[in-house]
């Protein structure tokens, strides 16, 4: 079995950088080592190690009773996980690709999210649903959706999405330890991004200010955090001092960090890949408006994907929020002194 | 040890054999005239007098519960009650074949099973009365909340069964569903998973001939629902669902196979829904009275009673005791369901997450302020 992260660290092995996908793998390993009730299953997660190799080596190292392949049926995966959690296990299941989670949606909405509530807290379901999501990897249809909106508007689910290597590790460990179901949205185009790993991190529900600034707040999560940071760098050259907030957790939502940032800057742009209409950004813009109205110098703007089914790969660059589109939104924030 | 083994397709996983599965005539031990039929020996455990009397007593009480609940929905004491009158052989025979440590996954129509399991009638009816979504402790009773979507609880039974197998426990999980539920995707995914993992699960279909108004012929083109077992490589049994001896035996054998590591079983119990789907339904629009009369002559309780009387087991004392227990249960239901239920508005926010989110705390506080203001204003 691979040494746990903490063990490796004492050997001074953690100076090297690892990818976000490897950080998720490390979190799964460490959680499985810490608690024998943690089981991992889904399509191709066993011998193959997942189509993104996120579960690489888990079956080899923990045995096929702890990490196993399932028949190709997402509702079956989800429903089986619910039953196993009812019996005291802590399943971590993979939905392979965002749009593949739709067949499981009835299980998620009708049972996973509601079992605690239906039973007055007597039947908690500590299940983690890993959903690799978002575009930018040249995938064909049904492989690039941003489906967080469906989960966010389903009470009973926690919805988290890391944007850094360390957050991928710490948030997944927290998700597995949570007694509530957690939808763990993995930005698949960041799977190969690398960084050093820190194993202590925030509890679920805390946003992070990734870049300090005074002129406007860019509110992003998951795959768009990187784009927002790039936009902030480019914006600096144009004279904008932009702050970047990485939400990390969509449910619960960190009103405190977001509100403090927007009250400081007086301007806000929300950025996500999912469609804008009825999307998570609409909720965030509404919350910011309610809490920061007297501090706002301009309406809250959104930069999102278009209200279309995810386009074919040759067109996705037009659909995804870009540095230019973010800076155009920033420029539109009614600057009287510019 | 690899628990998740590939099923042995030539071994004892199919004790009935495919010929038995494909025979669409239901297994029967007690015919509609209350006479023993089939191949039961006189000393078969199913014919143990004590067990037969206990089964009959549970059926008397179960039917009284059902009739009382139906009355109470007419009185407006329950929001809705889907009756299982006439399905007592399934409701009770299946439950009595389980151990208390086995898990049970009921649907909204299975209140009689839950009462037979020992759950308090008021807690059983909490969902249908409308004070909360589930009134009992599922962990204590090893009974999942009653499921209102169709067949979505079947994969949960697979999950519990798989977990029990991995944990090395002798627990079996039994899920009920109706004939309509067998058309749902979740039903098929549950059976397939259970078969692949050889999980100790029992899928018990109460084929009561109608999914609200849609008859079985429009639900499936298969000659028998039990045939669906063949495609999944699992044991399949078709039983007379109005013969409690056959039902009890089929479930006992399925549980035995499951505990022996021989995998899941699909049981189709052929029965009939004597009442309408619920009080909101008008069954005369889609079925003939003659059909109802046909099934009335096959009533599961009367059938067992005839047999027990002919065998001399049903003495006046036994009948009097059972009737009194049934009347006491009904009186208790009238009293306690007649009271206005206590509901706590704080429960709405208390059980969404282990710790309420800041957003929920805000909403709970706002509602509390509203209620306080109303009460101060004397409303």
Short summary:
The complex is a heterodimer of chains A (338) and B (379). Chain A contains 13 helices and 14 strands.
Topology:
The complex is a heterodimer of chains A (338) and B (379).
Chain A: H1 5-10, E1 18-19, H2 20-34, E2 38-42, H3 58-62, E3 67-69, H4 74-86, E4 90-94, H5 105-112, H6 115-118, E5 128-133, H7 148-152, E6 158-160, H8 165-177, E7 182-187, E8 194-195, E9 208-211, E10 216-220, H9 223-237, E11 242-246, E12 249-251, H10 255-265, E13 268-275, H11 280-292, E14 301-305, H12 316-319, H13 323-331
Parallel strand pairs in A: 2-3, 2-4, 4-5, 5-7, 6-7, 10-11, 10-13, 13-14
Antiparallel strand pairs in A: 1-8, 6-12, 9-11
Helix pairs in contact in A: 2-8, 4-5, 9-13, 10-11
Chain B: H1 17-22, H2 49-74, H3 88-96, E1 103-105, H4 111-117, H5 121-124, H6 126-129, H7 138-141, H8 154-167, E2 173-178, H9 185-196, E3 201-207, E4 210-211, E5 214-215, H10 228-232, E6 235-240, H11 244-259, E7 265-270, H12 289-296, H13 300-310, H14 316-338, H15 347-350, H16 358-376
Q: Give the tally of β-strands of chain B.
A: 7
Largest interface: A-B, 50 and 46 residues
Strand order within the widest beta sheet of chain B: 1-2-3-7-6
Output the radius of gyration of chain A: 20 Å
Low-pLDDT stretches of chain A are 1-13
Structural class determined from secondary elements of chain A? alpha/beta
Please summarize the sheet with the most strands of chain B.
5 strands, parallel
- Tell me the number of helical segments of chain B per DSSP (H or I, 4 or more residues long): 16
Oligomer: heterodimer
Q: What is the averaged pLDDT score of chain A? A: 95
Computed CA radius of gyration of chain B, to the nearest angstrom: 22 Å
Strand count of chain A: 14
Shape of chain A: globular
List the helices and strands of chain B in order: HHHEHHHHHEHEEEHEHEHHHHH
